[in-house]
Amino acid sequence: MKTGEYGLYELPSSCKATKHFRFGNHPIRMAELAREYGVVSLMEVSRDREAVKAEARRLNSSLTGERSP
Questions:
Q1: pTM of the entire structure?
Q2: H-type helices in 1-69, by residue range?
Q3: Residues 66, 18: Cα–Cα separation, whole Å
């Protein structure tokens, strides 16, 4: 099984995206988000995809007032 690195990214506050925090394969996803939104901030890099995914979900939920599972 190949292990990679996964990043947690924050989009600019000015963007109208429904999910302000994103995750994905680092650095590929960061480049994709930068092309789409112009600027993106790297918050975390980890080899644990599920942990990064859960953190993105938790952060997005905190913005909308929803409870994360």
A1: 0.86
A2: 28-37, 49-64
A3: 13
